[in-house]
Amino acid sequence: MDGFGRIIRNLRVSITDRCNFRCTYCMPAEGLDWLPKTQILTYEEIQRLVQLFVRLGIEEIRLTGGEPTVRKDLPSLIRLLAPLQSEGMKSLSITTNGILLDKLAGPLAEAGLTRINVSLDTLDPDKFHQITRRRALDQVMSGLEALERYPSIRPIKVNVVAIRGFTTETDVLALAELARRKPYSVRFIEYMPLDADGNWQSDLVMSGEELRQIIDRKWPLDRVAGIDPSSTSVVYRFADGRGEMGFINPVTEPFCATCDRIRLTADGQLRTCLFSIDETDLKTPLREGASDAEMESIVRAAVWLKEKKHKINEGDAFQRASRSMSQIGG
After folding, report:
1. What's the whole-model pTM score?
2. Per the domain annotation, does 239 fall within a domain?
């Protein structure tokens, strides 16, 4: 529990700072200075920390990057973490750009992965290249189709960052149509100040309500009741029953009051908010032989000081978040 009474149940774990895409809102074209391998948590260190968090009440684990699938033998980490279901973990998921899923979907399912988020901002090949700096849309779509063969990984969520001037009504409807004909939950995410160059502008934000109206005019949407209050997504289903849409609105409708998320960076730093300007070092005491009880005290103290709200308009905070986006993940 934090100092405002929020129960923390969700941990996002970056397992690498590296990525095989160069998305314009996340990373410069030339990439970043990657962390030395010795600074990155090992799979065994991740397992120990995740087990500690689960025993403290964390129920959902999501592995992120960078791009988690570029780390060698990702299924072996899933196999290390999957048994934690017996200790209270309810879901084990990854967030990925999907480019390697054609080969990895089966091994990940067999290892025990239960959920997945695939980032996909457009179905237009040229625009896909424009925003990711990679010509890989066909590979991502093949990866999504591969996931369909493994019903143990559900739901399959497709995350879309909508940016005014890039995302058109045609893009929005094409992605909505994908949700109507495939077993995917497509979720639109408002453009946040995480661009690598600090060029975020509020007038580039397409609000979740604006996006919902575009879809609703063509395919009426009904809001889904009973969603967990800590969920970041406002969920709708098409009135004819086919498909699901979500809208994540951190800019126009901040959800800090019910936030139950904390993050562990690839180099073992605990962040209690995406926009934190402070970190708590877990790697050093871990490697110096701290006991579980000592580690628990460090975690509890950090979480108690979890921020009341994000600092989306404070330049120092979002510059820090922008520079380290590859260590935090989505």
Report:
1. 0.90
2. no
